[in-house]
Every structure is written in structure tokens, then in C-alpha cells.
Protein 1
Amino acid sequence: MTLLILTLDDAPAQAAGAAMLTALQATGMPALATVTCHMLVRDVVRLAPQAVVALNPGVDDGLAPGLQAALVLLAASAPRPVLVLGGVCLPAAAPELLDARVQAWLPLPLDIAALRAALALAAPRFAREQGLQRDLQAALARLDERKWVDRAKGVLMQHQQLSEDDAFALLRAASMQANLRVGEVSRNLIEAATAADAVNRAGQLRMLSQRCVKALALRAAAGVGGRGWSSAEDGLAETLQRLQTNLDKLAGLGLPAPAAQLLADTRDAGLALTRLATLAGAAPRGRSALPSAATLQAADLQAEALLDHADALTTALEGRGGLRLLNLCGRQRMLSQRLAKQALLAGLLTDAGAAVQAAAAAQTVREFETGLAALDQAPLATDAIRTALAQARGQWQRLLDGLRRAAGPEAAAGRLVLARESEALLASFEQITSLYEHSMQVLLG
């Protein structure tokens, strides 16, 4: 059995190691070399000894600190049978010896016969321990896979309306197609579902930034107690609540460092918008309760900041190809609210502000129609998604009709159409986004 002799880094220890190397070689034992603690792992890999004999002179109650650290590192990276030659080994030292995977302890001075006998027992003991360790790791891996499979089946059963047997059959078929274990496919599915949820929630923040200002604009346009006042009040409260809920859910996902910083910036922008919108909506019902043009412009400026941060966060999270499609679909939600907001502000602000919003609304129309065309051509669309898209196209045309009416003599009626159809279009794209989020084609890619 080939040996390496391990010593401490000081000169006396190395001299003792050299003397032991000579003594062992003189008896015909295949001792390869001496090595110091800081070189142990490298030389074990280079020389490939079958065992390591550690010299631990002058220590009667365990391993010298340098030996302890070196042997623990060896056990983690390139394990070998380890024998220690030293003083009396006390029972109190047993835990650190076990941590260092020491198979035997022999007293000094060196007894060649005792060393041979200890090595003969250490090798099979080490092999058995390694086998047990491999069995344990395999069992833990199977248990971990079982957990992932159970979680994946739960996702499929919930979102695909499948039985447990059918969900497992789907996972097994996907694993065969991808040439991966069922556990790996299950883990990928859960990770994709988590990522899809993050993209969806981050994308909702974009929409909510625009919906918040839309609600304030509807309130200003309706007048105190006027037609549409109540829905504007309810819409603002619901929007702010959803904004906070999504920020809290994203914070609970434990996002990695770059996305976590983007989320922190998004949260700050969201809280700033919430404070401004709450202040604008907190006045008692009376003329002072109507948001002024200055308040609407300030809210819109803060909403644009939230939109920019949320868009950067969503882009950082989307990653996979299927999730980019989910991001595109979620963006249509935002554009439906953005267009209604811009049309309302165009009718409420002064000439310069109104012109800016009207030009922005024309750009939003183009962006929405570009996104709609891209979704029509998307390769991952299911029958349910295509049906929902057809419904959304009809709502989009009605929203455009409201947009035209809001800019003319039927402004009041047009605003009501904008409010109604933008919410209907939002509901449709909420449904479509959810269908993409839970699509097997997106999750399993």
C-alpha cells in the first residue's frame, strides 16, 4: 500500500518525517514522500497514495491544529485512509478525529509491525465507510428527487387539471424526451414555475403604475359624486393594495443580488407612488377631493419612474425564451392601462401637457398593436390562448372607439368607454398571461 507521510510545516516536524520515510523504505514499505499540511491535497492528487500517515508528535489530546485542518480538507476533496502516529489519544479527541476521517491512531515511537496491521484494517474500513457514504448520498438524492416530483405533480394537477397519475405520466414523458431523470425535469419545472410567477408579478407592477394614475384621472374627470366616481375610488384602492401585495411576494422569493437591487429600487418607486396617490385620494369628499392637474402630473411622473424600474426588473427575471413571451403578454396589460391613462390626461391637462399625452397615446396604440401581432404569431399559443386573444381584439377595437370619442364632443361618454373597455381588456390579458404562466410548453420548454 503506497503511503504519504504528513507532517506539520515546521523544520523539526519535517526532519522527523524524513527520518520516518527512510525507516519505512528500509523495511520495504512503499512510502512515496513526505508532505506538509499546506501541500497535502495537491500532493495527494499528484502522487495518488493509497493512504496517509500523519505525524502528530508532542500532542496528547488530539490533532495539532494544522493537521486537523489539512485532514478535514483532504476528507472533503480527495479522501484517503488516514492513520495518525502520536501521543496518547484521549476519548475527548474522538469528535475531531471523526471529522478528519482518521481510521487508526498509533502511539510513538514507530512500530513497523503495528503500522502494517493498522494499514491492513484501515483500507477495508475506509472502503466500507466510503460505500456507506455513497449509499447515504444516493438515498438523500432520491428523497430530494421525490420531493421535487411531488411538487411538480402538484403544480400540474392544479394548473392542468390532471390526476396524479396523469401528472406523473406527463413528467415521465418529458423526461424521456429530454433524456433527463424525472427528478431533474420536475426540478426544472418548479424552478420555471417560480421564475414565471416572478416575471408575472414584476410585470403586474408595470400595469399597476399606469392603472393608479388612470384611477386618479377618472376621479378628476368624474367630479365629486359623479358618474364613475365610485368605480374610480374602488379602482385606486384595489390598485394600491395589489401593488403592495406584489412587492411583498417578490421580496419573499429571495431574488439573487442583481435582481434584488432592482426590486429594492422598484419598491422605493412603488412606495413613493402609493404615498402620492393616497394623499391625492385622502381629502374629504368635496371640491378639494378632486386631484388637480399638478397632482395628476406629479403622480404620472412617479408612475413612469415605477414603470421604468419594474420593466428593468421584469427583463432581468425573464431569462428563458418562454418567459420572454410571458413578459410580452404581461406588457399588453400595462399598455391597456397606459393608453386609457394618456387619453384621460390629454383631456384634463393644459394645452402643452395635453399635447404630450395625446402624442404618447398614439405611440402606445402602435406598441399595443405590435405586441398583439407578435402574440398572434407566437409558437406556444394554445387553443385557450387563441380564443382569449380573439376576445381581446374585439375589446381593443372598442377601446379605440372610446379613445376617439373621448377626444371629441362625446368626451364624457368616451371616458366611460375608456374606463370600461380598458378594464375588460386588462381582464383578458390577465387571463392570457395566466395561461402562458401555467402552460406546459412554457414551463417545460
Note: The first helix runs from residue 11 to 26.
Protein 2
Amino acid sequence: MKLRFRTIFWAAAGIVLVLAIGWSFMPRPVPADFAQVQRGTLVVTVQDEGYTRVREVYTVSAPVGGRLLRVEAEPGDPVAIGETLANILPSDPAFLDARSQGEAEAAQQAAEALLGFANAEVAQAEAQVEYARTEMRRVSTLAERGTVSQGAVDRARLELRSAEAALSTARANVRARTAERDAAAARLMEPGDNGFARGVVNLTSPIDGRVLRRLQESETVLQPGEPVLELGDPRDLEIVAELLSTDAVRIVEGANATIEAWGGEGVLNARVRRIEPTGFLKISALGVEEQRVNVILDLTDPPESWASLGHGFRVEPRIEVWRGEDEIIAPIAALFRTTEGWACFVTQGGRAELRRVELGRSNGIDAQILSGLDAGETLVLYPSDRISDGAQVRARG
């Protein structure tokens, strides 16, 4: 009896050991994540950073050189057409060196002398006119008595007209010499002489809008054409997206777009208005040279929904390049490449089945399936090297 019990015990222990060893070598289901193939709309977009800008920016510049008085207008202030924004005092004359000072003084003295000579000529011409008038009256009286001929009268009249013309010439010469004297005196004026000032030049607003930037604030000296303020209408914004040229060629004018990560709530809608025909070179943050193209978008939402946006704000536009309706869509995370093309694992009865598929377009998250899958099938996401054709799989966790 004792021998039978020992035999049964060791036989049972051997069976348990064999079962334990067999169970340890049995294939176990691989934990995995799953997703279903769906039928729906697939949208392919390109996305990059962009910025907002006022469509029409007006730069108010100095029309003349001079001293700019302090600019009181601040960024964000409303402005109206014709409103005075800044004032400029025309430039004072510059200081003269010793040589220029001597030349200017000599020129003034010469102008004074020529003016005196011209005044003398005027006095002489006035005497000639007075004499010619007296002679004309005497000849006219004698002609009425029949003492002199008509020729004498005509000669007297000619001498009077010639004398009057000479007087007019002399007076015009005086005016010219006076102007020369004033010009010579002006060259001798010192900076700060109020007699040289020609008034204040007002810089006015050409539009109804707001001040975007104040380029000059404190009182300073400006050269002609130097900018002072930038004006615009913040309600008239557009979006500039600097896209890679390889992405820009896929976009068409009129394409729909959305504006994300703009700082406000929700997503803004926009539409592509223009694709600029010229690209430009830009260095990326990693130091890579990139050829980029400006794509201009117009916001289509009411201005009230993006009223907090301003000129030069950062945004992230996402522009639509393709849209497919009623397409079979699978997540990119379930697809992988093989030597024969794209493939995925489809779950059938708890086992993974390797399936060859043909892909169409992709947006980086989902892909268009042209063949190989049907809507409703379940795919294995991020398949590891433990999953093979026919391997058992189970939901993770």
C-alpha cells in the first residue's frame, strides 16, 4: 500500500512538471493596440508657421529735413484722415568756416555796392524821363502854333518813351540787386536765427485707422524721407505663410485653410488669395538653407472672432491641398513597409493576418487605402517584431 502511494505521488508530480514545462513553452497572445478601418472624408494639408499683417501699411515720412518735435501718438491710437500726427521745424542754416564766412561777407559787400550803382542808374533814368516830358510839352506847344514840324513832335515823343523804358529797366535792376543782397545776407545768418524760419511742417494722417508703429518718439533731427510712423487698419488683416516651395506648388488659389495656434479660442477659417511667383532663401533654426514662397490668405470669419489679432502676430495656417469624400481610411500607425510594398496586420479570430495594401494620399495621420482593406476591419497599431503572420494578439491592458 505504501509502495502504491509513493508511485502515485511521483507520477502525479511528473505529470504536473510536464504540464508546467509545456505551458511555459506555449505561445502567448501578444498585447497590442487596435484601430478600425473607416470610410469617410480624408483631407490632405500642408502646415507651417505664418504671421499676420495689415493689408495696406502707410508710412508717414519727413517731407523735408529738420528738427522733429516729440511725437505724442502711440501705437494703437486711432487716427483720422488729415489729423496732425507730428510737427517738423525746417533745418537751420549750418555754421560757416572761416573761408566761407569771408567769402559770404565779401559777396554781401559786393551786392551792396551793385545795389547802390543800380539806385544811381534809377535816379539818372528818372532825370532823363523828367527832361523828356518837359521837352515833349514844349514841342507840343510850338507845334500847335505851327512853329515846328510834325517830325520834331515825333522825335520828342520817341525820346520820352525811350527814357521811360530806361527807367523801368533801371528799377528792375534795383529789384534784382536787392534780391542778391538779401541772398548774401541769408548766407551769413547763424543757426537759430528766427528770421530764417519758414514755419512748421505738419505730418498728417492719409487714412482712417490706427498707429501701428512709432519709429521716432523723442525730439530729433531728421533727413528728408526718414520714416516717423506706420499706419494701417487692423481690421483689414491677411495671413502670410512662408511655405517650402515643394509644398507651395501643391496649393491652388482659392483653397480652404484653417488658422490654428493663434492664441484665441477655436480655429479660424481662411482662403488662399495669392501664391507669390518668386521664392526666397531662408535659413532655418538648424542652419539649413530652405527655398520658401509666400502664400497669402484672407480670413473669412467675421472680424469680431479675431479682433484680438494684430499686425505681425504669429499663427499656424493649415492649407488644404486635396480632399477625398467616401474614402477607405486607415491610420498610418498601422502601416509599415516590406520588400513588396506597404502592409499591415488585420486581426481575424484573435490572430494577426498579414495583408498587402495599396496606398493613395496621406496627411501624416491617416492614409487613403486603394486596395487591400475594407471598412470595419480591425488593424494592429504600431506592430512590434513579436507580431508575425498568424500570431495571437490581444488588447493591451
Note: Helices lie at 2-25, 98-145, 150-186, 245-248.
Protein 3
Amino acid sequence: MITNTVKNELSRIVGDENASFSREELVCYSYDATNKLSLPDAVVFPSTPEEISLILKMANSEGFPVIPRGAGTGFSGGSVPVEGGVVVSFERMKKIIEIDTENLIAVVEPGVVTWDLQQEVEKLGLFYPPDPSSLKFSTIGGNIAECAGGPRAVKYGVTKDYVLGLEAVLPTGEIINTGVRTAKGVVGYDLTKLLVGSEGTLAIVTKAVLKLLPLPEATKTMLAAFPKMGDAARAVSAIIRVKVVPATLEIMDRVSIRCVEEYSKAGLPDVEAMLLIEVDGPKEGLERDCRTVEAICKEHGATEFRAAEGKDEVKKLWQARRSISPSLYRIKPNKINEDIVVPRSKIPELVEGLGRISAERGVLIASFGHAGDGNIHVNVMYDKKSVKEAQDAEAAVVDVFKLTLELRGTISGEHGVGIAKQKYLEMELTPAVIATMKSIKAALDPKGILNPGKIFPKAVEAADAEHKVPL
């Protein structure tokens, strides 16, 4: 628990109206999309890096944790205050400071919603590609903390590929600027890339310089339906082999298709698998690429192939795709949502392996996601009221991770480690690698006050019981 002296000082730093200690408001900042709940001792809403610096300096002297928070849309528990402390929310730091159309950069505060930035730059004929499923709610700061990706990653990459520089506050309170505003820069260590994806454990980002691209001239969205999941997976590999790089290449299995169709009534075909494909670029050549994609899909057994007609149909298809995750709760009340990645050429083997695991463990597995870059969202469905179902689901997750690593993949492509994947970290990383990461954390955060209890294996259950929120 923080002391009354600390509470008074927090109120002085950010203003009485921008600090909260009431249980009702603290509960609102106690969880993210994992629904793992842990109560903070306070929530503050700073407006400047200087205010954050003062909070961190006080945290070092008084010994309380500080947890940065964007919109709380993460799937790994990264913003959950597992050891209590002070949540720093960026709801007041949401300015788009600059859009430089000559140098193709934007400068933004961390509380800017990803969708809002995209809409503003597109008005100027520019393009910010990262598009996580939560883009209409998630913030740039949270995207940076988790190195968010999205469907367009197959062609355009992920958040780290668009962060040129950062203003950040170190755990000890120093304000630093990393990176550049230029296309190149190799002076010293790349601290920018170190901070991107560090899950709010190494610094608190207060400003970001982001790379923009010219807006693609034209886009075409297509749907391909397959009677077999394996055929759809092989079509993905074939599309990439002929060097057509779609802007998006999404895959959905039968469970996902059925659930989202019941949920959204989007008119999706009743098949075992579906690909949602988007090609963009200059109008010249776009139709050629589309014809190539269509031919490959049909060669691999597609029973239906069609292009979306008009913006309304495109919007409807993408709304359906982004609705898959919530729609799955129609099957079972609980799910374990993993975001494994394998080399694209291994997707057919992954699909076969997931089917085998589902049958052997007796659990339903729904798979969908960014097949174009090998990033598949594997959802193990269960009912936690059944001890056996819960145990089988956990065992299936371990099987999925083992399969992923056997295929030379990684156990997380977008969601991060947070608290959700801590116990699996050593499956992928060697002791030497983990020790190196811990030494970096200790160097920047010697007192361990910034977002403690994340990434590295730790007995989260041992956190003070007083912080746990009863369900």
C-alpha cells in the first residue's frame, strides 16, 4: 500500500482532479483483455513527461511500483498491476503533435488511438500501416510497448518498423530522447528498438516519431473458400512463392467462420477454411496480381473466389474478421488465446499438428490470423468450471508451443509475454539469453519499480493478496 504522504504528493504533481484513489475507479484499471485482475493503489493521469519523471523519482525513493497503461486491450496482462502500485494512464496525453508531409513522419503522444492517427494521415494522402485488431481502441503507446502487428504485417511489417525515435522517461526518472527524425541513423546503440516491445518494463514512452508511407493508389479485397484447411494453408505458401506479396493474407478455420457468421451475418461461405486477401499498390499491375492470386487459390482447391464489390462489402468482410475473437465465446465461456508464429512454409504442417492436438487432447481449437506472415491465433476453448477441461486446455497449449518451436517458430508474435506467457519463456529462450535480458532490466531499473512481475518467470500468485480483486 502507498502512504497518505505519497497520495498527497501524487495529487500535487498531476493535480487533485487527475489522481484517483477510489476503489470504484481503481477497479477500472485493474485488468486488460486477459481478464486477470489485480487492484492498483492509485491511478494518475499526467500530461507531461516532467510529471511522469517526478512520479518515477518518488517511486524509487518510496519503493512502490509504477505501471504504464494505454487502453488496456493487451492479451498478455502487460498493464495489469500485479504488485499494486500506481497506474500511469495516458488518457490526457493524446495529441498528434505534427504530421510532416515532406519528410513522411508523424510525432504523437502515447495516448493517441491508432485508428485516429491513421485517419488523420490518410486525409493527407499518407499511410501508417500497423493495424492490430484493436486499432480503433488501442493506443500508439500500447502498440509500441507490445510491438503490435496486424493483418498488414505480411507486406508492411510491425510497429517497430515505423518507430524512428522516442521521448521516454527511464525508471529512475531521467527523460531521454532516442533515435532520429531521418531515414537513417546509426550513432550509438539502438535504444529505440530496445524500448519497442519491452512491455513498459524499461521506460515509459511519452512521445514517438513515426515513419509514414505514401497511401497506396488502389486496393482490392478478395475472398477464397476451401473445402479443406490444409488446402488453404498450402495456397498461402504458394502465393508467397510466386512473389506476390499481398497487403493482407488472413486465414480462418471452420470454427471461426461459423462463429463469426452467427455473430455478424456477413454472408461468409459454409466451408472448412477461408482466406481473406487484400492486394494494394499502383493500379497498373494490381489486376495482374489479383488474377495470379485467384489462379493459385483455384489450383489448390478453392471452391469459391470472389472480389469484394464496393467499400461496404470490404468493410463488412473486415468487420467479420475482426469479430472472430469475441464471437468464439458462443462456443465455450473461456479460451486461451495464443499468437504463435511459424515460417510461412510451415503453415501446412502447423495446421495438421493443431488438428492432431485437438483430437488427442479432446479440446476444441479455433485457428485464424495472419497466415501471410505465419502468425496464427490459436484459441483453445474450454469451460473453467470443469477442472478436466481446464487441465486439458493447458496441456494443449504446451503441445501447441512444442509444435511451434519444432517448426522453428516463436510462441508470441504480437501479444508479448506479460504475465500470460511467463511460465513458457524457458521453452524458447536459453538461460544465457534470459540472464542478459534481466541484466538490461537491472541496469535501467535498479530498484525494479517499473511494471514489475512481467516477462520473466516469477510467482505472480505470491503478489500481495490485498491487490487481488474478487470476481
Note: The chain has four domains: 4-91, 96-214, 218-323, 331-446.
